[in-house]
Write a structure and sequence with these properties.
DNA repair; five-stranded mixed beta sheet; Alpha-Beta Plaits; MutS, DNA mismatch repair protein, domain I; DNA replication; DNA damage; damaged DNA binding; alpha+beta
């Protein structure tokens, strides 16, 4: 029996909704003088990093996780704004209220994107495409912001579809299209395949989904471990993961890869700040906290180290999370090899924010 024999009994209808340049678009909405201009959220300092970029800025090659000095060089007219996460959370709540009109099966990925299972929906609408169109219209009416959506029969393809017609677009991948669509894509476009894995695939002669599909499951598991089975499936347009609205998360984290390896502490710290913002935004939105802070570092030779510290009570503020992350980063420096990736996460989750007033002290 092959993976292709494990078909779901009911063909699912999945929508992936992704807001367009969310943080930057909110700033342009709320500040008319920024409309039509290249805007970057965060990263205003010399050592800072761009957290989000408007589409006007993206035309110049500016993107999230880019060093501020690089962004300014690419786009001299770039306008940096600090950002307002309270506003972003409020807008995200409006967006999720629209989702909830159609289905309780909502799996948020961040403030600005989510999977929805509308196979059996609250309005009894047979067409997932119609639902996606209605959701996009209602989001715009409620927030004056645009959203892109992807519709398909599984999460992997729905996520890919939402990127096809950005911004303010809708794309549908029907079951008959799924395998050929996956086969035609470069591996670097696959959700779940990062730059390092894509480079490894290229070294093995795997450049497209079709190249992966030509390999045996044994070959993929030999070279990619347990992820090999996932790659085997998605290269065939197969993904049986369910939309899980109540998924219990053991940790909350964010990470990103440098475009150029660095040995400089200030550059590394500037790179971590938007990741800290992302983690803290999620824990606040979910009203949960964590007791353990972990720093992840990947070096230019692909060696990975982690440094963690736990307290008796949860981290109580974004400032504390930043403080403890910085202490962990200081413990890594000086470095002998360049850093290519950094990440920060919180674990030992579960306590409600309103129950957490005590200060966390880390014994280093």
């Amino acid at each position: 029996m092959t993976m292709d024999d494990h078909k779901p009994a009911l063909q699912r209808k999945i929508i992936h909704v992704d807001m367009d340049a969310f943080f930057a678009s909110v700033e342009q909405r709320d500040h008319p003088e920024l409309r039509g201009k290249p805007v970057a959220v965060g990263g205003g300092s010399e050592r800072g990093v761009v957290a989000a970029a408007s589409y006007e800025a993206r035309k110049f090659g500016v993107h999230s996780a880019m060093a501020s000095v690089t962004a300014k060089r690419k786009c001299p007219e770039l306008i940096f704004v600090r950002g307002n996460f309270e506003t972003y959370r409020a807008v995200s709540k409006q967006i999720h209220e629209v989702f909830a009109e159609y289905t309780p099966l909502i799996e948020p990925l961040s403030l600005d994107e989510a999977y929805l299972d509308v196979t059996e929906n609250l309005k009894g609408i047979a067409s997932a495409t119609q639902i996606a169109e209605e959701i996009r219209e209602k989001i715009h009416a409620a927030t004056q912001l645009t959203a892109s959506a992807g519709v398909s029969y599984n999460k992997f393809l729905a996520k890919l579809a939402s990127d096809q017609n950005k911004p303010d677009g809708l794309f549908v991948i029907k079951p008959a299209m799924g395998p050929s669509f996956a086969a035609s894509l470069p591996v670097k476009k696959f959700h779940g395949i990062g730059p390092a894995t894509a480079a490894k695939m290229n070294r093995l002669g795997l450049y497209t989904g079709a190249d992966i599909r030509a390999q045996s499951l044994d070959f993929l598991e030999q070279h990619f471990g347990v992820s090999g089975r996932y790659y085997y499936g998605i290269s065939r347009g197969i993904d049986h993961r369910q939309v899980r609205p109540d998924r219990e998360r053991k940790s909350i984290g964010a990470e990103n890869t440098f475009f150029t390896d660095t040995t400089d502490f200030d550059t590394a710290w500037g790179f971590l700040e938007p990741l800290i913002d992302k983690v803290w935004t999620y824990v606040e939105a979910k009203q949960i906290k964590g007791r353990t802070v972990t720093l992840k570092v990947k070096f230019s030779d692909f060696r990975i180290i982690t440094r963690s510290r736990s307290g008796l009570v949860p981290v109580a503020s974004r400032e504390q999370l930043a403080q403890f992350t910085r202490v962990l980063l200081e413990g890594v420096f000086p470095v002998g090899k360049g850093i290519r990736l950094l990440g920060v996460s919180m674990s030992s989750l579960g306590e409600k924010a309103e129950e957490t007033q005590a200060q966390l002290s880390l014994s280093l």
